[in-house]
Structures are given as C-alpha cells and as structure tokens.
C-alpha cells in the first residue's frame, strides 16, 4: 500500500487515544497533516436522524454542523453506508455548498457492528482530487476508527 507509513502513524495515534473524541481528533489532524491538498477534513457522528459535526480541520462549515440523513452527499452515505467520491461537486446536485472553493469531496462511512456510526468527510479545492490510494487509505482509517469510537 502506498500510504503504509501514514496508516501506521494513525494506528499508533489510535492506540494511544484514551477517549473516542481524542481518537477522532487525532485522525483528522493526521489526515490533514499528511495531505495538505485536502482543504477540509472532518468527522460527522450519526445522532438519531442527523449527522452531527465532530472534530475537523479547516474552516468552520457554517450552516452544516448538522446534516439530516438522506440530504446531500453525507446524508446519502448515511443511507447507503458506501463510500462516495465526487470528482466535481458542481456537477452533483446533492452537494451542499459549505465552501465555495470546494471542487471535489470524499465521504467514507464509519461502520461499527454493521451499523453506521459516522463518516469521515474530506473536501479538496481541485476537481478529481482523490487518488485510488488515498481513497483506500481513508477507508482503512475509517475501519480502524470504528474500533475506537
């Protein structure tokens, strides 16, 4: 795997995390540090029928601290529990515009005990920003994080 060193660092950070909130914050910081091309990295937790913003790195997403299940790309992932890669958000009617500069988005579900716990959401300022290796890394991180939430 191309990003094995980053994955190992995240595993170490998770092992040393005492609380779920710490684990989430450390994952977000590590992803943002290793991938500066990601303009925003955050975690949403499913609470009832809403995705509620947790730790994030980047600008504050005013107006989208809570996203209803089924609304937008994040809300769609909450229903399907499948990774969504949007290469060009301007071409996807589901995209909820948090930041004018966002051009592409990656949303990866965090699944615990076969149920959606939350999501890792990443925005980038260029279209087609996410490589297959980056997507696979974030999917592995989501699986690891599911063990620590």
TrEMBL record:
SMART domains reported for this sequence: GAF
Top-level taxon of origin: Bacteria
SUPFAM superfamilies the record matches: GAF domain-like (SSF55781)
Pfam families per the UniProt record, alphabetical: GAF
Transmembrane domains' residue ranges: none
Chain ranges of the GAF domain: 19-148
Protein name listed in UniProt: GAF domain-containing protein
Organism, as annotated: candidate division WOR-3 bacterium
Lineage: Bacteria, Bacteria division WOR-3
């Amino acid at each position: 795997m191309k990003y094995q060193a980053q994955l190992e660092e995240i595993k170490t950070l998770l092992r040393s995390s005492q609380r779920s909130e710490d684990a989430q914050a450390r994952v977000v910081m590590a992803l943002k540090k290793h991938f500066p091309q990601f303009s925003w990295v955050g975690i949403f937790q499913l609470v009832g029928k809403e995705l509620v913003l947790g730790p994030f790195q980047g600008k504050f997403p005013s107006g989208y601290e809570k996203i209803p299940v089924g609304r937008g790309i994040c809300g769609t992932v909450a229903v399907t529990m499948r990774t969504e890669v949007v290469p060009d958000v301007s071409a996807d009617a589901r995209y909820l515009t948090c930041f004018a500069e966002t051009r592409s988005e990656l949303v990866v579900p965090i699944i615990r005990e076969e149920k959606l716990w939350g999501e890792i959401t990443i925005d980038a300022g260029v279209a087609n920003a996410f490589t297959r290796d980056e997507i696979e890394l974030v999917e592995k991180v989501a699986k690891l994080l599911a063990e620590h939430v």
